[in-house]
Amino acid sequence: MKIALYPGSFDPVTNGHLDTALRATRLVDTLVIGVFDRPLRNLLFSTAERVALIEAAVADYPSIRVMPYNSLTVEFAASIGADLIVRGLRDSMDFERELQTAQVNQTLAPDIDMVLFMASHKYTFLSASTVREIASLGGSVDAFVPAHVADALQRKFASTA
Ligand code: ADP
Description:
There is one protein chain. The chain is an alpha/beta fold. The protein is 43% helix and 19% strand. The protein has helices at residues 15-25, 47-57, 73-79, 92-108, 128-136, 147-160; strands spanning 3-8, 30-36, 64-69, 84-89, 113-118. It has a 5-stranded parallel sheet with strand order 3-2-1-4-5, with helices on both faces. The chain is globular and about 45 Å long.
């Protein structure tokens, strides 16, 4: 049974994240989307909210599970029996960061490999931070996130306005 971990902040989940997750399911029996629960920076959505938004987005895909975690990513990957860690690559900045992370992870957990998915061209420009910025200014994010995520963003910024 092949298991992969797709870790990230997902603040909030975007169509780009979901595209990578669905493509990754072709490689494995189970894909665990790991939602990092100990942010190094301030996040808009709580961990429970980020998990719930992803769960609603992947409800039709039984091979995907969503779990929060607050340990080292490689330790969490080992604890769920993952053979692979999946990440997405949009540009050379993602590449530099992921290469460094992969090399550190290789030292910490030599049995777990990283698999990097090139972002689909229509999502290369898309980041959760761009989505948050557009939504904070009252713009439409309908093209970038599932409808329930767009609603959650609207509610979040209405409540903080
Ligand atoms: P981080 O884990 O650095 O906080 P995110 O939670 O935003 O980053 O993203 C998680 C993973 O998804 C990262 O590997 C990131 O490069 C990838 N990713 C983010 N946006 C996209 C996108 N539009 N298309 C493909 N992959 C993406």
